[in-house]
Structure formats: C-alpha cells, structure tokens
Specification:
By secondary structure, the chain is α+β, with helices and mostly antiparallel strands. Helices cover 39% and strands 24% of the residues. The longest helix has 27 residues. A 3-stranded antiparallel beta sheet has the order 1-2-3. The chain has one domain. The chain is built from 2 helices and 3 strands.
Length: 117
C-alpha cells in the first residue's frame, strides 16, 4: 500500500501530519511516544480508532453545516418537482463505516395543498 494518497492534497497531508503529532501527544501523553514494549497491534488499533472518530466527526460536521445552507431557490419534491419550503428541521441518523452520524436535516413542506382523490 502506498504511503501517499493521491486524493489528498499536499496541504491536507501537511495538516494531517501536524494533527497526528497532536493526537499522539493526547493518546500517549507527554512527548507522544508509546511506552517501550507496546505492541504494534495496539498502536495500530489506537490509531484506527482515532482515525474512525475523526472521519465520523468530519462527516457529521460537513452534513450538519451543509444542511444549514439551504439554497434561496425553492426546494423541489423529488416525485413531482413541486416547490417546497423549509419549515424547520428533523433529526437524521446514518450508520457509516466510521460509526453513527447525526445531524438536523431541513424539513420541507410542499407549497400546494395535497389532497386525496
């Protein structure tokens, strides 16, 4: 497996290097070095847990903030193309490979009254 991920920009990689240093200091305290004799499998497991939580938080923040930026043009109902207005929010939950992601999704209301025929 290649060390460099071509989908991650050099700027993001630089920030991740700094973030990894900070996380090591939090996980291993002090200078961020695991105690001598710590098995690689334990270091790997701890790093993967930190990575999963970072991924989950990044997704949760992204969809949470995205849902607050509803475009000014009206939303449309998927089935009819009818204009809809946002009338509040409703909780959304999605299970991802990194864990559960929660956010408040805009709640649309159709402009035209719908009636049973």
């Amino acid at each position: 497996m290649s060390r460099n991920n071509p989908k991650v920009s050099p700027e993001v990689t630089l920030e991740l290097v700094n973030l990894a240093r900070q996380m090591r200091r939090l996980v291993y305290e002090g200078d961020g070095v695991p105690e001598w004799g710590t098995k690689f499998s334990q270091i790997e497991a701890e790093a993967l847990e930190v990575g999963r939580e970072l991924s989950r938080l990044m997704m949760e923040q992204a969809v949470g903030e995205q849902s607050q930026r509803v475009p000014s043009s009206p939303l449309e109902a998927a089935d009819s193309g009818e204009p809809a207005a946002v009338i509040g929010t409703e909780p959304s939950v999605l299970e991802t490979t990194a864990g559960e992601v929660q956010w408040k999704q805009p709640k649309p209301r159709l402009s035209k009254a719908r009636c049973c025929g």
